[in-house]
Amino acid sequence: MNILWFVTGVALLALLAALMTWRQARRNASRLEQIAQMYWELKYQHGELRVQLQRALPREAAAPDPAPPPREPRLPDGFVPLTSLKR
To answer: How many whole angstroms separate alpha carbon 48 and alpha carbon 44?
Structure first.
């Protein structure tokens, strides 16, 4: 009879632990949603401020530097395409 009470107690403790874990997971999910919302709002505000800054600066200062000359594409050292072997 004592074994049954022991098993019941362990089951209740396991249930309590599972409920506490589920509650914490729900909290973490809602916090993650808040953080994601804050991230996208901040990204939007950053874009708006960048546009305002570009409008406020004179055209000469806003012009970008000339682009560097394009480099030749470099192939990875260890890769040989099969089409080049067939030719």
So the answer is: 6
